[in-house]
Amino acid sequence: MVNAQGPIPRGDLVPSGVVGLLGTQGPTSRAEIARALGLSPATVTQVTKDLIARGLVEELESVPSKGGRPARLLGLVTDAGVALGAKVTADHVAVVTVELDGTVRSSTEHGYDPTAGDAIPRLGQILAKEIAELDDRLLGVGVGVPGAVDSQASGVVDAPTLGWQSAQVGPSLRAALGTPVLVDNDVNTLAAAERLYGIGRAHSAYLVVTIGRGIGCGIVVDGGIYRGANGGAGEIGHIPVWAADDTDLPPCTCGSTGCLEAYIGAAGIVRTARARKVIGPRGTLPTLLRAATTGDSTARMIFAEAGGMLGRALAGVIHTVDPEVVVLMGEGVDGWEFWQTGFEPSFRRSLLPARREVPVVVEPWTEDQWARGAASLVLTSPFDSAGNGGEQSRLVRARMGTR
To answer: What H or E segment, with its residue span, contains residue 375?
Structure first.
């Protein structure tokens, strides 16, 4: 979290970085925390003092030091509670139980139709069943959705891919579950999880870009997630990418035409592959990926073209946000080797010379990561000094026995 110019301004997720560090590294001294996170010793002393007071961190045994008194190790309080995370998709809901250190204790999947008339009550029933089976103190529920959310605290959702408009997800679930519920865009939840447990511990400005059914982007600036005026920041899948003379633009789920996602989201890539007869009328993205893996040149070209379009669009986002690093995630990274042949030259060529070395990190993907990201909404809420979670964050803090 430091650069050549000195400490980078930090947002409201930094104390969570301490919790994440203890969770991933185990018991750690204050001096090691300061070095790992680029914090001053005084800051670490103050932050950890507050975490101890909140019952999230405890002092453990001492270890020998190179000079002076022995260093005391700090560790997480293991029984401080768990969070439930749910990722809503067009055909299922993935649910995980997550400990404070990010460990996924359990994972389940439920069939789900978000277009049904009782979709929101049905979601409440799914989560109520999961909560009933918990034997630990539940701190709250985090829900990630593929769409815009007005605020974590409110949880009103506009998600065209789910058929939801002004859906009262947060209010409905809170009434059904009787527990704190925070709701956000699914890619924003991944960005928060990276801040807690991943690459975000070392960077205060980064992008999390997902490729798969859609194309999404979580933006972290000065250590905090940037959500925009109405919770819709980062919808890069809806950047228009058509040429001026295009006459047959592909439709997008948002209702517009010619969006980036309409070309390189899963449905767009499959449509192109069918049109070029690489796969049959019932062929799927896995079918196309198998063709590329076995050497089909047209299949590989389709992925490379998608990578080129992503690279050009992402270069514009880089110029706007100026992140330290880009993290690529999502179901689509399984075929990244084929995307990359088009992405790298297009991306680097489209960047200003001063930006051409920005690193792009591709992370392995599992379905659990979406739901684990949703759980991070709860796990970061005790440090919500910006008030993003409103009353729901306060309720989580109360369940932790904190102020």
So the answer is: helix 368-380
